[in-house]
Specification:
By secondary structure, the protein is an alpha+beta fold. The chain has 1 helix and 2 strands; from the N terminus they run αββ. It has a two-stranded antiparallel sheet with strand order 1-2. β1 and β2 form a beta hairpin. The longest helix has 12 residues. The two termini are about 15 Å apart.
């Protein structure tokens, strides 16, 4: 089953948030671009969970 959530903030950029989460979760976020979402960051965990 796939569950998708979209989160946002007006206090930090997506790049800043990806950096903060990368440090805390020990993952690497890759910048991606979507016609629907625009620029976003994606990380895939060891168990194939995608953030």
């Amino acid at each position: 089953m796939t569950v998708s959530d979209i989160y946002g903030t007006n206090s930090s950029t997506a790049e800043e948030l990806a950096g903060l989460l990368a440090d805390r979760l020990d993952v690497t976020f890759t910048e991606r671009e979507s016609d629907y979402l625009g620029v976003y960051f994606l990380a895939t965990l060891a168990d194939t969970t995608r953030l």
